[in-house]
Amino acid sequence: MKTHDAKGIPHTTPRQSATFTNDINSDIRRAAATGIYDIRGGGAKRKVPSFDDLLFMGASISRYPLEGYREKCDTSVTIGTRFAKNPIELDIPITIAGMSFGALSGPAKEALGRGADAAGTSTTTGDGGMTPEERGHSSKLVYQYLPSRYGMNPDDLRKADAIEVVVGQGAKPGGGGMLLGQKISDRVAEMRNLPKGIDQRSACRHPDWTGPDDLEIKILELREITGWKVPIYIKVAGARPYYDTTLAVKAGADAIVLDGMQGGTAATQDVFIEHVGQPTLAIIRPAVKALQDLGMHRKVQLILSGGIRSGADVAKAMALGADAVAIGTAALIALGDNDPKWEAEYNALGSTTGAYDDWHEGQDPAGITTQDPELMKRFDPIEGGRRLRNYLKVMTLEAQTIARACGKNHLHNLEPEDLVALTMEAAAMAKVPLAGTDWYPGKPGSGY
Amino acid sequence: MQNVDLQEIGLRDLNAMLHEQSSDTNQTAWEIDNPKGAHAIACGLDAPIEVTVKGSTGYYCAGMNKQATVNIKGSAGPGVAENMMSGKVVIEGDASQYAGATGHGGLLVIKGNASSRCGISMKGINIVVHGNIGHMSAFMAQSGNLVVCGDAGDALGDSCYEARLFVRGEVKSLGADCEKKEMRPEHIEILTELLAEAGCDANPEEFTRYGSARNLYNFDVDNAAAY
Ligand SMILES: Cc1cc2nc3c(=O)[nH]c(=O)nc-3n(C[C@H](O)[C@H](O)[C@H](O)COP(=O)(O)O)c2cc1C
Asked: For chain B, which domains are there?
């Protein structure tokens, strides 16, 4: 590159814009070429305040730890104790989030069931209904009741161990779904009562209720149909967690699933994923506060999701008041999604390991987010299930390690007092002190 | 004939009794007195029984019905026969919003008028309305037949898929991607049968058929305004 012009006057260094970055410019070029917004899978990729900005303090002279390998640290959790005759008993507080059949292949659903079952936890259906693969391998199956009602039928409803009324998803609070034509195979089309090969739009609102008063009646209907046996969860996106939690409790929920903006999706507009909703870290305290204000904390269980990756995340979510967590993306990675062994194929699709998010296109080299029979063959549900089980066990051990270090004999005994924050933002959101202080924004400090 | 007073036994016991009926039950006829607009009456039925509700009902009466026949001698609140799979639901009076929403099968007959969003997201159910229907009816309707002997409100069949919509009277406006279609002999045949089953003597020849123009089936930037 030339540094001076012909007269010897120096050029200024070419300067990239912080506003028009190469990333942004590529978005503009893509939009100009296609005329359609970018649809992709996965969750928000931007950096937001997160559990990484929190640390546990561990034990000290005033708090003593539990012996790592000898003293018990319980991980069990019961969900649905408020109204259901048969609450769900989980050995670990890490559940598998709802992921649609259609987005995922039948064998991938089977693997989720196998892995979760072996680890003593539940899986969740998704848009598109219940598949025999999942019901057959998951002994605790939560049946999602979604706005689209694709594949919804009372027989499957009665087979479910719990029902999750989906109001919103963290990746797209207020948005519906879109499964592009390529993924509408014969089987998916049949389950959804749609012609093959067309784009399938999922509604963003339920067709037969609007607002919290209706929701209460809808829940009554679901309970009547299932004889008040199974718990009813309400899943909401991290939009207005204090009010949404309050209204969900008032509508009669047994449990609340709260999904932050990092939460994955099978297919949503990128602009939606990145710009609508609140980070997972920001939504948990308002939701817990709502439960506490109603005297319902620990009575109506709170399941938090959106970017949960490790036992540390689990422990932090629980310390802030969650009863359990749910994982989507992490479970897919455990199954083999975005594995470096497919790098050449990701490159051929214009992507790279770790960044591959065109889950809606049905060409997943790992054979997980596809309906293509050839690609599906690459994925072994038994091996996938084993990997998921291992990963769930590791997360649980990690969370237990932290809890014992904090002197807790149950993960539920972790508390905000065990935490400090690394940044002002995280301190404000989690309402735990900034490290080295006894203060968080919004709280008057004693100032030592 | 099993006769029960809803106010005496309460909703839970009523529905539990109805759910206990199996396919070979001999308690095939039920009469429910004093419904008084209660919600979720006779929802989730799954046996070939006939239930007559002697009055008006609240939300979701006969919701998710399978096999059973449910007669409502008054009017029905929102979401009557929602997600019905099979069987028959007949309403003597009017129906509120979302009648037959997401229904997969069976026949819903409304002898009066139906409010907005009748047949929303219907997935195979047949609905016959003797009177008029409100706005946004058959929104995203996937399959099945909606027959309206009176008029239809605004935005009929918006974003519908393969459902067939038959209207005898005026349609205030059609929704996005919904268009008038040709009535072929097979449509007259379907209509004749449905009208007969619904106890309606309207002349099938007087109906107009509407359905999806199928322009929104695969995204095209030139149709972006319709999304
Ligand atoms: C492939 C995929 C499909 C999904 N399908 C659904 C769905 O059908 N219904 C739903 O409520 N959420 C769906 N979600 C969202 C998950 O239930 C969950 O909220 C989210 O994945 C949690 O965040 P995480 O991915 O960071 O763990 C899906 C997520 C993924 C990754």
From this structure: 2-226 (2.160.20.60)
Q: How many residues does chain A have?
A: 448
- Which residues of B are less than 8 Å from A158 in CB distance? 44
* Nearest CA-CA partner of A381 in A160, A109, A140, A187: A109
CA of A242 to the centre of ligand 1 (A): 22
Asked if the Cβ–Cβ distance from B162 to A195 is below 8 Å, we say yes
The reported pLDDT for the residue numbered A182 is 66
- Which of A83, A150, A208 to mutate to test binding with chain B, by most B CBs within 10 Å of its CB? A208
How are the residues of chain A apportioned to helix, strand and coil, as percentages rounded to the nearest 5?
Answer: 40, 15, 50
**Quick one: average pLDDT of B22-40?**
95
Q: Look at residues B121, B219, B208 and name the one whose alpha carbon lies nearest to residue B168.
A: B208
Rounded mean pLDDT of A158-165?
98
**CATH number reported for the structural domain that contains residue A111 in this entry:** 3.20.20.70
Q: Which of A169, A274, A284, A313 for a ligand 1 pocket mutation test, highest count of atoms within 8 Å of Cβ?
A: A169
Q: Domain tally for chain A?
A: 1
Q: Which residues contact residue A93 at a Cβ distance below 8 angstroms, ignoring those fewer than 6 apart? A: A75, A76, A77, A314, A318, A322, A323, A324, A325, A399, A411
Is residue A343 a part of any domain in this protein? no
Q: In this structure, is residue A10 part of a structural domain?
A: no
Q: Which amino acid, A281?
A: L
Tell me, what's the pLDDT at B226?
64
Can you read off the two tokens belonging to residue B133? 């229907």
Report d(CA B4, CA A120) in Å as an integer: 44
Residues of B in contact with A205 (CB under 8 A): none
Interior angle at CA B9, CA B7 and CA B13, nearest 5? 130
How would residue A130 be classed by pLDDT, with cut points 50, 70 and 90?
very high
The answer to whether A154 contacts B60, with C-beta atoms less than 8 Å apart, is: no
* Mean pLDDT confidence for A52-75: 92
Mean pLDDT of A281-307: 98
Domain containing residue A153: 49-336+379-412
Supply the DSSP string of B114-160, one letter for each residue. B-TTTTTT-EEEEEEESS-B-TTTTTT--EEEEEESS-B-TTBTTT-
Partners of A66 in the beta sheet? none
Rounded Cα distance, A216 and A222, in Å: 10
Alpha helix ranges (H) inside A260-369: 270-275, 280-293, 311-319, 329-335, 343-348
Q: Name, in order, each residue with C-beta under 8 angstroms of A232's C-beta and a sequence gap of 6 or more.
A: A80, A83, A84, A162, A163, A164, A165, A219, A222, A223, A252, A253, A254, A255
**Residue B167 clears pLDDT 70, i.e. is over it:** yes
Write down the mean pLDDT value for chain B: 96
Give the CA distances from residue A63 to residues A17, A57, A66, A316, A405, in Å, rounded to whole numbers and listed in that order: 51, 10, 10, 18, 9
Residue A193 is nearest to which of B16, B19, B124, comparing CB atoms? B124
- The full length of chain B comes to 227
In DSSP terms, A233 is beta-bridged to: A164, A255
In a domain, A419, yes or no: no
CA–CA distances in Å: residue B97 to residues A8, A199, B83? 78, 27, 14
* Residue A368 falls inside a structural domain: no
| pLDDT tens figures, A242-254 | 999 999 999 999 9
List of residues 6+ apart from A315 with CB closer than 8 A? A56, A398, A399, A402, A403, A411, A414
DSSP state letters, A32-87:
HHHSS--EE-S---S----GGGEEE----SSS-PPPTTTS--B--EEE-TTT-SSP
Q: What is residue B225's predicted lDDT score, i.e. its pLDDT? A: 66
Of B149, B79, B150, which is closest to residue B121 (Cα–Cα)?
B79
Complex prediction ipTM? 0.96
